[in-house]
Write a structure and sequence with these properties.
Length: 425
């Protein structure tokens, strides 16, 4: 549904004062006062009037006369007086069945029509007309002071006038993909000329962010009948580094070339949390967490920081802290340092939300912190990270080393005893 802005209704009122006075006895007012009062009226009648279809498209034919129907929708279910008029470059070729129409409250919709009579020729391209349907307030019948309209809607007439010979209109749409995936290049092409297009194709050069050409390709060739539309689709394998790219294309048809250009991205501009390291852990102390983050983008990302929220089994936040802000170079890794004050934290399992924030984006990981007196396990990064304290317990690595050393001592002792026994013999 197309609604006519209040300002356009006003302009129409000021442009045709004589006709309005003659038909309805309207009293023209100061433009500013008229606009204000009309706006007040429109507030009470929004959505009371609709129209369908919002647009009708017709192909031009010399001398063609065509009647086009449309439907006015009385969504407010009320009695209405409607004024119909045509505006736009084709208005002189449009005749409306009735300038004024009444719609009763019992009529939820009413079918109306207009007729367009084409001349022998029109300028090539898209030609338009607007058919306005304007609601007239009941006070207009009394002949006293009144507002021009409470609401207006419009249905559009689009006429495609063919160009002489062969002529095409085209666009370039590119759909991003991840690295190694297929970037979709779509060329919508319209044949706007008098004759069919027999050979339509595209040549494309792809450039990276510093202007170096990374690839070139040609699409298949298609034919398009006069007035028809086709899409040329090409899947380009994105075997290139992650980043921004520019495509410079030439859409080539029988008698012309259309230059086209668009940008696209390979991969996503994202940061990924890879691991969390805690060198030692003792509950009740301030713990240093080192969080390794990878920048998978081919450009630096500046001013990124990590926010961590630790929740108990009821979903209540028991701890919340942020890291400092860091800049991460392209395709590199950076360690973010956060400090967690565990004073008052009890032994148990905690759902933990770790969010990497950069620009207007955020990348979040949901983890589990398994906390004991001298041990922290971080679960949820595809593996378990364990950190044990140095004061309240012995790390598993130390235990393993002790066992190995003891075994080595026993082996050497046994070897020494055996060797001594042989020497005595």
């Amino acid at each position: 549904m197309n609604k006519m802005p209040a300002a356009r209704v006003l302009d129409y009122a000021m442009a045709k004062p004589l006709r309005i006075k003659k038909s309805f006895g309207f009293l023209l007012m100061n433009k500013k006062i008229l606009f204000f009062v009309m706006f007040v009226f429109m507030l009470s009648s929004v959505y009371a009037l609709g129209i369908s279809p919002g647009r009708t498209t017709v192909d031009f034919k010399p001398g063609l006369q065509k009647t086009i129907e449309f439907e006015v929708i009385n969504s407010g279910d009320k009695d209405m007086k409607l004024l119909l008029t045509a505006q736009g470059e084709l208005a002189s070729y449009v005749s409306i069945s009735s300038d004024a129409v009444s719609v009763s409250a019992s009529e939820h919709s009413k079918t109306l029509s207009y007729t367009v009579s084409f001349p022998n020729d029109l300028e090539p391209g898209l030609r338009t007309a607007d058919i306005f349907v304007v609601e007239v307030p009941e006070s207009a019948e009394a002949g006293g002071s009144a507002v021009l309209a409470t609401l207006a809607v419009v249905t559009q007439l689009y006429v495609n006038v063919p160009y002489p010979g062969k002529f095409a209109e085209a666009d370039l749409i590119i759909y991003d993909a991840n690295r190694g995936g297929d970037v979709q290049f779509v060329f919508p092409v319209l044949s706007r000329g008098e004759f069919d297009l027999t050979n339509v194709r595209a040549n494309v050069d792809v450039f990276n962010s510093v202007g170096d050409k990374v690839d070139s390709f040609n699409t298949q060739s298609v034919s398009i009948v006069s007035g028809g539309r086709k899409e040329i689709v090409y899947a380009w394998k994105a075997d290139v580094p992650i980043g921004n790219y520019r495509a410079a294309a030439s859409l080539i048809y029988d008698e012309g070339t259309i230059p086209l250009e668009a940008t696209f991205s390979v991969g996503s501009k994202e940061l990924e949390l890879q691991e969390i390291t805690v060198n030692s852990f003792s509950l009740g102390e301030i713990i240093k967490l080192e969080m390794l983050v990878e920048n998978k983008w081919s450009e630096p990302i500046k001013d990124a920081h990590i926010s961590t929220k630790i929740k108990n089994d009821r979903g209540d936040i028991v701890s919340s802290f942020d890291s400092a802000s860091y800049d991460i170079s392209a395709l590199s890794k950076q360690t973010f340092v956060s400090y967690w004050d565990t004073a008052g934290v009890r032994v148990g399992d905690y759902q933990t939300e770790v969010s990497i924030n950069y620009g207007d984006k955020s990348s979040t990981k949901n983890l589990e912190f398994q906390v004991s007196e001298n041990n922290l396990k971080v679960v949820g990064l595809g593996y378990v990270i364990s950190a044990e304290g140095g004061e309240g317990g012995v790390s598993s690595l130390v235990i393993v080393l002790i066992v190995v050393i003891v075994l080595l001592v026993l082996v050497n002792l046994l070897w020494f005893l055996l060797l001594r026994k042989r020497l005595k013999k």
